[in-house]
Amino acid sequence: MSAPVITLDGPSASGKGTVAAMVALRLGFHYLDSGSLYRLAALYAVRHQIPLDNEAKLAMAAVRLPIAFRDGRVWLEDIDVTDEIRSEDIGLCASRIGALPALRSALLQRQRDFRHPPGLVTDGRDMGSVVFPDATLKVFLTASADERGRRRYKQLIGKGASANLQQIQQDIADRDERDAARPVAPLRQEPDARLLDTTRLTIDAAVDQVIEWYRAIAPRA
Ligand SMILES: Nc1ncnc2c1ncn2[C@@H]1O[C@H](COP(=O)(O)OP(=O)(O)O)[C@@H](O)[C@H]1O
Ligand SMILES: Nc1ccn([C@H]2C[C@H](O)[C@@H](COP(=O)(O)OP(=O)(O)O)O2)c(=O)n1
C-alpha cells in the first residue's frame, strides 16, 4: 500500500507552507512544498533567458531541473536560492509558467517521487486534485484576501526585504486570479477537500485541526 498523503491546497499566503511543515513535523512525515518547484523552474528560466511562454523549452528544462533540498535550504545549479525564490517577482513568474500544461506534466513525477513511508504532507494548488488524487486527507486552506496580504507583508518585512502593503495585496490578487482562471489544474476547492479558513485562527489551531482530521481517518497516526 502507498504511504499516506495529506494535501493542503489554497491561495497565496494563506499559511499552507507553515501549517504543512508543522503537521509533517508533528506526524514525522516528509514534506513537499510544491510551489518551490514552480518557483525554481521560474528562476531557472529567468537565469537562462528562456521566455516564460516557451512551453516546450520550459518543460524540457523542468524534467531535469538541477535542484537539491538540503538542511532546510533549496539549491539550484549548486547555488543556495532559498531566499531568492521567495520574492513576489519569482512568485508571479511561477504563476505564469504554472499555466502551461507541458510544464505541469514535466513536474508531475518529480512531485510523486516525494511519497515515501511513513507519509507525506504537501502543499500547493493541485496536490489533492491532480498530483495525489488518492490522498488520505485533502484540505483547502484559505484566509481573507486582506489577512493574506498582511501576512505576506509581515513575512517579507521580517526577512529584511522592502515591501509595500498595497502592492503586495495587488500582486496576490493578480496571482490568485491567474491560478484560478487557468484551464489546467486551477486553484479551487474540490468537493472532496475540507475547508479550513484561518482568517481568525492561530497557526497552532490550524495545525491542530489538520491533525485532528487526519487522526479521525487514521487513528493510529
Ligand atoms: N493562522 C495564521 N495566523 C497568522 N499568521 C499566519 C497564519 N498562518 C500563516 N501565517 C503567516 O503568514 C505568512 C505566510 O504563510 P505561508 O505559510 O508562507 O503561506 P503560503 O504557503 O500559503 O503562501 C507566514 O509568515 C506565516 O507565518
Ligand atoms: N502545485 C502548485 C504550486 C504552485 N503553483 C504555482 C502557482 C503559484 O502562484 C506559484 C507559487 O506557488 P507558491 O505555493 O510558492 O506560492 P505562495 O507561497 O502560495 O504565494 O506557483 C502551481 O501552479 N501549482
From TrEMBL:
CDD domains: CMPK. InterPro entries: Cytidylate_kin (IPR003136), Cytidylate_kinase_dom (IPR011994), P-loop_NTPase (IPR027417). It comes from the Bacteria. One of its GO terms (molecular function) is dCMP kinase activity. ATP binds at G10, P11, S12, A13, S14, G15, K16, G17, T18. It catalyses: dCMP + ATP = dCDP + ADP; CMP + ATP = CDP + ADP. Its EC number is 2.7.4.25. GO terms for cellular component: cytoplasm. It is found in: Cytoplasm. Pfam families: Cytidylate_kin (PF02224). GO terms for biological process: pyrimidine nucleotide metabolic process. Keywords: ATP-binding, Cytoplasm, Kinase, Nucleotide-binding, Transferase. Residues 6-214 form the Cytidylate kinase domain. It is an enzyme of class 2 (transferase). NCBIfam families: cmk. Belongs to the cytidylate kinase family. Type 1 subfamily. This is Cytidylate kinase. It comes from Microvirgula aerodenitrificans.
